[in-house]
């Protein structure tokens, strides 16, 4: 049975759901995505695992208050507290994009209980942040005030560039819908403006101290975070396993869903025995 609940943290409302039974697995999404990107994988794994989906504040179905900090620092601290709120055995974390940085900060800085890590095309190593990120960071209020139609066109073009294959209409709608409307538009540019490389610089020297089994998985066609970062990250984390998906882009979940599902299934089977 699936449950849908809300976790309140420092005024933020975090929407989360749980289904299945077995060892706990937590999916951590990135930007500008939401837990919806991981939902089919949670469904596939729920016959063997208790899977948790959650939206970071400022994303998806969680609160998008203009005044709230949505930085990697805040999200990492929140994740550590959310895992403690759920309780039970330490979970296996399956992460993507900035979800990887959030999970690494929760583990390395906040002592979050973690059984293993799967880091899929993650933000973890400098340099990161595109020219678009820098432009938004310097002009967030201007972008937030764009006419709605212009914002949606920019958003769709931006999101489409994360995949190596053409997104279907339903896939594209799933990715952009949380960012539409006045609240969603403001939140979209606010979370980009909050992106700060110092939050990964702060933990990069700690990667050799990661003490849990770690899988680093990457699409070789990722133009947002090139695959060399995957090789570097795997070399920094003791015993990390590296797995590559030929030709897949940053949205490996949509470019290579069958291969990624099989990889995550093998990984969880190997670390949850």
TrEMBL record:
Signal peptide residues on this chain, from the entry's feature table: none
GO molecular function, one term: catalytic activity
Pfam families per record: Abhydrolase_1
Annotated InterPro entries: AB_hydrolase_1, AB_hydrolase_fold, AB_hydrolase_sf
Domain AB hydrolase-1 positions: 23-257
Protein name: Pimeloyl-ACP methyl ester carboxylesterase
Phylogenetic lineage: Bacteria, Bacillati, Actinomycetota, Actinomycetes, Jiangellales
């Amino acid at each position: 049975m699936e449950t849908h609940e809300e976790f309140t943290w420092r005024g933020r409302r975090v929407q989360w759901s749980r289904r299945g039974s077995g060892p706990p697995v937590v999916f951590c999404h990135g930007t500008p995505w939401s837990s919806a990107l991981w939902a089919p994988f949670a469904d596939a794994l729920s016959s063997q695992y208790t899977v948790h989906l959650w939206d970071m504040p400022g994303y998806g179905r969680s609160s998008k208050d203009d005044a709230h900090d949505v930085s990697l620092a805040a999200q990492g601290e929140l994740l550590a507290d959310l895992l403690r709120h759920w309780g039970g055995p330490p979970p296996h974390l399956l992460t993507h994009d900035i979800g990887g940085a959030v999970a690494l900060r929760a583990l390395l800085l906040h002592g979050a209980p973690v059984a293993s890590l799967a880091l899929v095309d993650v933000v973890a190593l400098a340099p990161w942040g595109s020219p678009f990120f820098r432009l938004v960071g310097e002009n967030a209020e201007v972008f937030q005030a764009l006419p709605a139609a212009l914002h949606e066109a920019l958003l769709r073009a931006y999101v489409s560039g994360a995949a190596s294959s053409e997104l279907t209409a339903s896939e594209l709608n799933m990715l952009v819908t949380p960012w539409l409307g006045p609240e969603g538009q403001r939140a979209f540019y606010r979370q980009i403006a909050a992106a700060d490389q110092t939050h990964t610089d702060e933990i990069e020297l700690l990667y050799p101290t990661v003490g849990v089994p770690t899988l680093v998985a990457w699409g070789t066609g990722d133009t947002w975070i090139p695959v060399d970062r995957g090789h570097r990250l795997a070399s920094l984390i003791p015993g990390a396993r590296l797995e590559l998906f030929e030709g897949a882009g940053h949205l490996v979940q949509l470019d290579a869903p069958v291969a990624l599902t099989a990889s995550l299934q093998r990984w969880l089977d190997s670390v949850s025995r």
